[in-house]
Amino acid sequence: MSGPLQIKFVKSATDVRDLPESPAEVAFVGRSNVGKSSLINSLANRRQLARVSNTPGRTQLINIFSVPNGATVVDLPGYGYAAVPGRVKKTWGPMIEGYLLDREELVMVFVLVDGEIGPTKLDIQMLDWLRDNGIPHTVVATKGDKVKSSKRPTRKRELAEACQLEPGDVVWVSSQNGANIDTLRQLVSAHLS
Ligand code: GTP
Ligand code: MG
Prior knowledge:
Strand content: 15-25%
Shape: globular
Strand order of the largest sheet: 1-3-4-2-5-6-7
Radius of gyration: 16 Å
Bound molecules: guanosine-5'-triphosphate, magnesium ion
Number of domains: 1
Oligomer: single chain
CATH architecture: 3-Layer(aba) Sandwich
Number of strands: 7
Number of helices: 5
CATH topology: Rossmann fold
Largest sheet: 7 strands, mixed
């Protein structure tokens, strides 16, 4: 048991040049509504640290959080939500790409995939892009509580396969019931210390 991460909100930014100095940074990326903000709240054991919403596309900026040693955690806007205003949508690609390519402090990208739905086309594109660019990443399957326990073994195998991974490479979590949140905390802490 490692206990909640002591995560504090630092700032929101649209450009990698506006980000604070950091000894190490991890980022959470994934399609809109996959549960990125909820997961950050779960890691911190706080309800409203990162804004959670039923309205997809709520997180439209790069939101930066810090842990006590000064290392940072980033909540990125979700991709694939068609109804964000045109202007916002147009800036999404360059903003996230620029961040992922240029942020030198970035040590690990956690790619969130909806455990109930499995990887979408955009998730696969994101994973391919990260692989092509040599950016370290780990797949986290979210909303594990929504998969019936009888279907879990099959679903775990299928999701991993669709991501070209072994089942043991994917961290399955649930922000709703706390499953594996502590495992992910330890993983995040290891990257940030
Ligand atoms: P954007 O900011 O729009 O990109 O979304 P996000 O990825 O930050 O998702 P967010 O955390 O706002 O969650 C989206 C919805 O999924 C909310 O209604 C959450 O309550 C729900 N949700 C998040 N995590 C879980 C989970 O583990 N289980 C279940 N059942 N629902 C979840
Ligand atoms: Mg969010």
